[in-house]
Amino acid sequence: MIAKVNGVELFYEVVGSGDPLIMVHGNSEDHTIFEVAADKLKDRFTCYLIDSRDHGKSSKVNSLSYQDMADDIKSFILQLGLDNVTFYGFSDGGIIGLLVASQTDLVKRLIVSGANTQPDGVKKWMVTFMKILYLFTKDQKIKMMLVEPHISDDELARIACDTTVIAGEKDLITKKHTEHIAKAIKGSKLMILPGEGHGSYIVKKTKIADIILDICK
Questions:
Q1: Backbone angles phi, psi at 47, to 5 degrees
Q2: Domain ranges, residue 195
Q3: Whole-number Cα distances in Å, 155 to 6, 61, 100, 195
Q4: What is the CATH classification number for the domain harbouring 117?
Q5: CA distance 134 to 196
Q6: Is the dihedral of CA 139, 66, 198, 76 positive or negative?
Q7: Which residues of 25-63 are buried (b: 16+ CB within 10 A; e: fewer)?
């Protein structure tokens, strides 16, 4: 399906029935990383699996920013008239979720995995790798990760919805940074998953579905 929002076309799939659950993937991925999880979530939620702008089957753009992507999601929620929204975002999707929840009351429950609020929240070796990769590819998706996001603690403090901040024990985001995000969001819950990496429990896995169902009991 296609939603025309904020000057772009967002491709999305709808799976299941129940309260709306928006799921947004990470950098250079698409909605298909959630198809296995959505199959397990479909009896509890209407899952909206979205391709972010410049990803998957959504519109290509000349420049990328997390704020534009967050504005896309705001417009998507309003256009479809969604209420009682749970938002799950992985990596870049988590950053988008933090922005949406800090700027609006469109999200009732926020769950983010492997999100960062500053570029230096990413482990140094990964930043070095991305810099080298960008030198060869000039990929604007990689550039965005190197220079963004810049979400302040004041912005995080504006998040009023029920929030869970998740990361793997071996995540690409530092544990200190993940803990800082959770501390800055009043009343949020922190989950550090033993033995897990950045997307090891998410990409084409059912474990993230189990986690979401447990949080939403």
A1: -90, 125
A2: 2-215
A3: 22, 27, 10, 31
A4: 3.40.50.1820
A5: 27
A6: negative
A7: bbbebbbebbebbbebbbebbbbbbbbbbbbbebbeeee
CB count in 10 Å sphere of residue 214: 10
Q: Domain count of the chain?
A: 1
> In the chain, what are the helix, strand and coil shares in percent, each to the nearest 5?
40, 25, 35
Give the residue among 92, 13, 88 at the shortest CA–CA distance from 54.
92
CA atoms within 13 Å, Cβ hemisphere of 125: 3
Reading the chain (217 residues) residue by residue, the pLDDT tens digits are 999 999 999 999 999 999 999 999 999 999 999 999 999 999 999 999 999 999 999 999 999 999 999 999 999 999 999 999 999 999 999 999 999 999 999 999 999 999 999 999 999 999 999 999 999 999 999 999 999 999 999 999 999 999 999 999 999 999 999 999 999 999 999 999 999 999 999 999 999 999 999 999 9
pTM across the whole model: 0.98
Cα-based distances in Å from 139 to 94, 120, 133, 198: 21, 19, 8, 21
Element (H, E) at 108: strand 107-113
Q: What are the backbone angles phi and psi of residue 16, rounded to the nearest 5°?
A: 90, -170
Which pair of structure tokens corresponds to residue 167? 């990361």
Whether the Cβ atoms of residue 165 and residue 190 lie closer than 8 Å to each other: yes
Distance CA 217, CA 206 (A): 17
